[in-house]
Design a protein that fits this description.
This protein is an all-alpha fold. The chain is built from ten helices and two strands. A two-stranded parallel ribbon has the order 1-2. α1 packs antiparallel against α10 and α3 crosses α4. Its main location: membrane.
């Protein structure tokens, strides 16, 4: 609202500015809409209680495995509800590979051992693991009672642990191959490089408007100079006529 620019340079600057503003708002609302849709389609579950309190995502574990027996024999009401859900839905899987495949297809959460799930997450970039752990279990190497291997194995494991070799092996084999994938999936905001085309258009338009404004100033100054010369000549002519 208000007086509009009459000069060509002013109209160019005004037009470029409004085009930039409209396109920027369009990009913002399009990104905002995509973020809302993505958040509405994906439910973030961080605990077993949240998993038991929802019906959108199905979940299961390996049939007749140690994890299934844990939920079956647990006295925790949340864990018993999870077991009842898996029994009712028959959402057990026969192997871990099948559970990983169902999870990759979507709308399914696989319940398993943290160490195994960490290895799966390190290999498949689209998967993630909840931070909550039910219990930490230790694993050992079995040997016959009274076997001389027990002492040698114990000493070897202690030496590998103290030398840092076990930590090195875990970092080697459990290292994630998804470099930069977390930032790519979690960063949904508009980045400056996504809008560089708009700012380039704005800068180009303002540059053209500035150039036109300079040309208009030069043209106006030249016209004023010509008018001043004509006015002086006419005044001199009139003055000379009066003298005569």
């Amino acid at each position: 609202a208000g007086p509009h620019p009459k000069a060509l340079s002013g109209r160019v600057v005004s037009a470029i500015w409004w085009i930039f503003a409209v396109l920027l708002l369009a990009c913002y609302f399009a990104n905002f809409n995509s973020v809302l849709n993505s958040k509405s389609k994906h439910i973030s579950i961080t605990s077993f209680e949240e998993l038991a309190n929802q019906d959108v995502i199905d979940y299961g574990t390996i049939a007749n495995g140690s994890t299934m027996l844990f939920f079956k024999n647990s006295n925790n009401p949340v864990y018993r509800r999870i077991h009842q859900h898996m029994e009712r839905k028959k959402s057990y899987v026969s192997t871990m590979q099948e559970g990983v495949r169902l999870t990759q297809e979507g709308n399914f959460a696989f319940i398993g051992e943290a160490v195994s799930l960490d290895l799966v997450v390190a290999r498949y970039c689209k998967l993630t693991r909840a931070e909550e752990l039910i219990s930490m279990r230790s694993y050992s190497i079995g040997a016959p009672l009274g076997s001389p291997l027990v002492k040698n194995l114990t000493i070897a494991i202690l030496q590998l642990s103290e030398s840092g070799e076990l930590t090195h092996l875990r970092e080697k084999w459990w290292a994630s191959s998804c470099v930069g994938s977390d930032e790519a999936h979690t960063s949904e905001a508009l980045n400056p490089h996504d809008l560089r085309g708009l700012f380039l258009l704005l800068g180009l338009g303002l540059g053209i408007g500035l150039l036109l404004a300079l040309l208009e100033l030069l043209s106006r100054a030249r016209n004023r100079a010509k008018d001043g010369k004509v006015g002086r000549k006419a005044h001199m002519f009139k003055s000379g006529h009066r003298i005569k």
